[in-house]
Structure formats: structure tokens, C-alpha cells
Amino acid sequence: MDRETALTFVFAAIISTIVGVANALAPIPDVKKMWSSNSTIGVTSSPPQRVINFLVHLLFFWHSLPFITNSDGLLVLINGVAILVDTAYIYMYIRCANPTRRVIMAVASGLSVLLFTIVAAVSLLGFKGHHREPVVMWCLFTAQMVACLWPIYSGYLVITTQTVNHISLFEISNGVLAELAWLCYGIYRHNTLFTVPRAVMCVLLMLQVMIYESVANHGVNIPNPQALRDMIVRVTPVNEDV
């Protein structure tokens, strides 16, 4: 390995791994908050985004296994950690949310697992050898492009409501760094299906940061409606003796 190739590997692979693991661990503060308070009040991570990311991480993990493609230890490590963290988040959210949100999260998570199971079964049983990788990669590409819809929707909510309660600046900033790092990794691996969604997500997340800053400086920040609903549901009526 010459010097240029070695430097490229260090930048594109090792740094991507560090940033990727950091991004995978981003929901941990919310998990700890739900664990300690037994409530979803104050949770900054978006439940729909976590469910979509859960599916993407499952597909990435599957794609990285040796019987699908050439074993990629970096992707196995990062997505394995991300799956564990997302699972903990989903479990705690189902445990702590109000009944309606609990059912929605359970159904959405179940559908994600079902879709992953179908993709895994079809790729493993319906194809052999190197033919499995394109099938999984196209499914992964589709899931990543669907994930790109969330920044668009949350940005729309911020613009229409003129509040920043729908997005977390910490999570967005962390996501931008992770997507940039993985974009470099995809370019290093010459993988178009890996690179294109990352490039799109980078642009959308950077637009989200701009929208956030604009609205935060000029908009009015109101309490999180979901947090208020959870608080109302958990209030216990007091019987007054007359």
C-alpha cells in the first residue's frame, strides 16, 4: 500500500468509523432520560427517524456480512452498535410513551423488522453467491432514499409552525458529520449506490441546519406538544374531601 492509498484509507475508513460510531450512539442520552424519568418528556430524537434508521442499519449490517458481499468489518461494527442503540430507544419509547404513541411505535418497528426479514430471506434463498449483493444494495439504496424524506418533512414543519421543536440541532449536526464521513468512505470504495444517498442526505441536513438557525433566531419556541400531552396523561387526579 503506497503512502497516498494509506492516507486515503485512514481518512475514509478510520475517521468514518469513529464518526459513524459516535452518530450511532447519539440516541443514548434520550434512552437514559426515558429510563430515569419513565417518560418521553424532553426526548429530542424523532421516533419516526429512529425507526427508519433502524431499518437502514439492519440492511447495512446484513449487506456487510461475508455471505452477501466481501466482509466489511467497519460496517459490521458500526451498524451492530447502531442496531443495539436503536433497539434500546424503541423499547424505552414503547415502554414510556402514551398508549397511542406506544401502538404506533410498535407497529412501525414491527414493519421495519418484517421488511428486513423479507429482504434477508429473498436475498439468501432466492439468489446465490455474488448475485445477492446487488439485491440487498438496491433495497438498502431505497431505504436510504426513504430516510431522506424525514429531513424534508421536519424542515417543512419548522417552516410552517415557525418553531424548532420538531428537530434537534445536536442530532442534525452529528448527522452532517457522519454523512460527510461516510460520503468519503463511499467515494473511497467507488460505490455509487452507497455514495448517492449520503450526498443527498448531506445536502438536506445542511439545509435543515440553515432552517433551524433562521427560525431559532426569528421564530417563537413553544413547548413540545407531545411532551405536554404525555404530561397531561400522567397527571393523577386528586380527590378533594369536602
Automatic annotation (TrEMBL):
<feature type="transmembrane region" description="Helical">
    <location>
        <begin position="103"/>
        <end position="123"/>
    </location>
</feature>
<dbReference type="Pfam" id="PF03083">
    <property type="entry name" value="MtN3_slv"/>
</dbReference>
<feature type="transmembrane region" description="Helical">
    <location>
        <begin position="6"/>
        <end position="26"/>
    </location>
</feature>
<keyword id="KW-1133">Transmembrane helix</keyword>
<keyword id="KW-0677">Repeat</keyword>
<keyword id="KW-0762">Sugar transport</keyword>
<feature type="transmembrane region" description="Helical">
    <location>
        <begin position="135"/>
        <end position="157"/>
    </location>
</feature>
<dbReference type="InterPro" id="IPR047664">
    <property type="entry name" value="SWEET"/>
</dbReference>
<dbReference type="InterPro" id="IPR004316">
    <property type="entry name" value="SWEET_rpt"/>
</dbReference>
<dbReference type="GO" id="GO:0012505">
    <property type="term" value="C:endomembrane system"/>
</dbReference>
<dbReference type="GO" id="GO:0051119">
    <property type="term" value="F:sugar transmembrane transporter activity"/>
</dbReference>
<dbReference type="GO" id="GO:0016020">
    <property type="term" value="C:membrane"/>
</dbReference>
<keyword id="KW-0813">Transport</keyword>
<protein>
    <recommendedName>
        <fullName>Bidirectional sugar transporter SWEET</fullName>
    </recommendedName>
</protein>
<keyword id="KW-0472">Membrane</keyword>
<comment type="function">
    <text>Mediates both low-affinity uptake and efflux of sugar across the membrane.</text>
</comment>
<feature type="transmembrane region" description="Helical">
    <location>
        <begin position="74"/>
        <end position="91"/>
    </location>
</feature>
<keyword id="KW-0812">Transmembrane</keyword>
<comment type="similarity">
    <text>Belongs to the SWEET sugar transporter family.</text>
</comment>
